[in-house]
Amino acid sequence: MNASLANQVAVVTGAGRGIGRAIAMRLALAGADVVCLARSLDQVEAVAGEARALGRKAWAYALDVSDGAGVSSVCERVLADAGRVDILVNNAGVTRDGLLMRMSDADWDTVLQTNLRGAFLMTRAFSRAFLKQRSGRIINVTSVIGLIGNAGQANYAASKAGLIGFTQSVAREFASRGITVNAIAPGFIGTDMTKELGDELKAEVLKRIPLNRFGEPEDIAEAACYLASPGARYVTGQVLAVDGGMTM
Predict the structure, then answer these.
(1) Torsion of CA 204, 210, 214, 216, to 10 degrees
(2) Splitting the chain (248 residues) into consecutive groups of 10 residues, what average pLDDT does each group show?
(3) Residue 18: which of 36, 6, 32, 30 has the closest Cα?
């Protein structure tokens, strides 16, 4: 077992399933204690239990990352319970797909509030702690859709493109304190979200992926573990596409 993250505390949003769960478990495997956040307490309690089975400390909290008061309250509890935070993974995200002309205000707002505002609120809540300890790793999970766009996903693409600009701006602000801020842009990953795609659409998507397969949540988790590790100490403000070559 690689213990490169021993004695560190990692916070992962959207940790109840899919990519978030895989990231939380990979960081735990690397030695980190993990704080698992998601709207469903049952889901994150289960993930925290898996982390504890590896011998790690783990905490679970229910949180809607778009709720400013909720984020402030939970992040205060995290710092009190865990004592510190070394790694923040902003992974929580939602989709509300639809063509622009039919997209409701609510569908636009919900996606931007969770995917972009959520990352802002979480980063701001822990910024004082990171700056004070003069160390930290912030990893934002964006998407290849934020790089290339996609019909029917104007809200999602805008939120994920915004997250890239957010990543690079915060990287510049925090660099002098030894804090790195990077983004991972997953391609099409085999999760509950992509399982809903029809067979015809899946076949179309595969034609655009040189490696000719969908990724796995673990592929994103490995990238997150690298960016959180000592080996990535000189990497900041970057967007790492993990997409089977789709955007090259």
Answers:
(1) -160
(2) 84 96 98 97 96 97 97 97 97 95 97 98 97 97 96 96 98 98 95 71 89 95 98 97 96
(3) 36
Asked about 156 being catalytic, the answer comes back as: yes
Residue 8's pLDDT is what? 97
Q: Which of 61, 156, 226, 234 is catalytic?
A: 156
Q: Is the pTM of this model over 0.90?
A: yes
Yes or no: say if 24 and 17 are a contact pair by the CB < 8 Å rule.
Answer: no
- β-partners of residue 189 are 215
Strands (E) located in 65-115: 87-90
Domain of residue 208 covers: 9-241
Cβ-contact 126, 88 below 8 angstroms: yes
Question: What's the structural domain count of the chain?
Answer: 1
Counting DSSP H helices and E strands in the chain, the numbers are 10, 7
Q: Is residue 2 part of a domain?
A: no
